[in-house]
Amino acid sequence: EVQLVESGGGLVQPGGSLRLSCAASGFTFSNRDMHWVRQATGKGLEWVSAFGSAGDTYYPGSVKGRFTISRENAKNSLFLQMNSLRAGDTAVYYCVRGGVGYDNRFFDLWGRGTLVTVSS
Amino acid sequence: QPVLTQSPSASASLGASVKLTCTLSSGHSSYAVAWHQQQPEKGPRYLMKVNSDGSHSKGDGIPDRFSGSSSGAERYLTISSLQSEDEADYYCQTWGTDIRVFGGGTKLTVL
How close A37 gets to chain B, by Cα (Å)? Predict the structure, then answer.
C-alpha cells in the first residue's frame, strides 16, 4: 500500500527539541522530493521544509536555523529535527510526497499527521 | 514569490455544482496549481493539478465529479453532483523559488 506514516509527536516545553519520523511504503522513496507541512488548530496549511531527491534542502524563514530535515533512503524514512521550539510551532505535522518530474513542485501524497504541542 | 488567494467560504446544495476559485498574484498567471481536500478531522488529500491552459490531471481514485479549469490568473476546482462527504476545506498550492505556497483555503458547506 502506498502510504506515509508519521511518528514522534508529543508535548515539549518551550525551548525544547523533538524529532519527527516518517515511514514511507509502496513507492520508490529515493526518487521523490519529500516535505513536511504543518497545520495549527483551526488554521491553514504551512510548508515547513523540503528534501529534494538530489540532496538539496529548503526551509521557510519561520523555521530556518531551528529545524533540520533529513532522510535515509535505505530505510525509506524522512525526519524532522526541531530545536528551540516555540508555542507558535504547535501544530499537526504532515509528511508529504512531491510529484514526479516537473510535478515535483506539487504534493501528491499526504500522511495522517502527528501532533506537536509546545507548552510549559 | 507567488501568492494564492481563496475565498474563505462557499456553499451549495446537495446534488448541485460548485466552482471554487484560486487566484494567482500578479506576474504568476502562468503557474499551475494543485488542489487538496481536507475533510473534517482528517489529513489532506491530493485531488488534481490544474495547468494555465485549463488542462488538469487527477490523483488516483478521484471521482469524475471533480474537474479543473483555468482563466487568466484564476484556477478553478468544480465539484458536480455534490455529496455530503464533499463538505471539507479545499486548498490550492503552488511553488516559488525554493519554497512551496498554499492558499488560505475555502471551507465548503453542503446544504
Answer: 10
Q: Which residues pair with A46 in a beta bridge?
A: A38
What proportion of chain B, given as a percentage, has pLDDT over 90? 98
Of B32, B43, B49, the CB nearest to A111: B43
Interface of B with A in 52-111 (CB under 8 A): 59, 91, 93-95, 98-105
pLDDT at B66 over 90: yes
Q: Does B41 touch chain A (CB under 8 A)?
A: no
Q: What is the DSSP letter of B25?
A: P
Of A22, A41, A45, which to mutate for an interface test with B (greatest number of B Cβ within 10 Å)? A45
The alpha-helical segments, DSSP class H, found in B52-92 are: none
- By C-alpha distance, which of A88, A65, A74, A68 is closest to A23? A74
**pLDDT tens by residue, B22-51:** 999 999 999 999 999 999 999 999 999 999
